[in-house]
Amino acid sequence: MVKNKKLQQSFLQELLQTQERVGKRISKDLHDSVGQSLLLVKNKVLQNKDQKTASIVDGVIDEVRAISRSLHPFKLEELGLTVTLQSSVEMIDENYDIFISAEIDNIDTVFDQEKEVNIYRLVQESFNNILKHSNARSAEIIVINKETDVEIIIKDNGKGFDVSKEKSSVSKIGLKTLSERSKFLKASFKTLSEIDQGTTLIFNIPKHV
Known about the structure:
Number of strands: 5
Distance between the termini: 27 Å
Helix content: 55-70%
Number of helices: 7
Oligomer: single chain
Strand order of the largest sheet: 1-2-3-5-4
């Protein structure tokens, strides 16, 4: 039973890493190949003074860029983890009917690139869960750069849930994925929640493991 559980965890973590590698490759192809081709099409259309079609192509370019960003966060490599987390939270605040506050310490160069991607996904998936399930009006993220670890606290004022029932439910893939990412980072992961009292997620990610 214990061996099967370890095998399952190993498989899930390998699956997450494979998804990331495939996503990065497809994202690069979309940006470099499809994106560039669409820009050429737009330029040809503008030469014919067809502004209506050019605006349609613009819309498609924006969609391709959005898909590319979701498949792999290239901003991480360009801007660092701190700014990428800040900008992703600001984007949610601007585009959804929820107020988000953020206090994010500088954590650039603390972790290697693979861990940075997993931390970014950890935050992204936490907020996706809030948007999908919580009915929250506000949320906050606090990132604290401590001496031996980085602590990430994500709170919402949503409907909350019964933690014991949620953990036992296989269908709640959101929490399961967060748990697997935490294990990959050798991080502790706590979920605090009560019905109608919101939810708090706490991740403590060790620096030197």
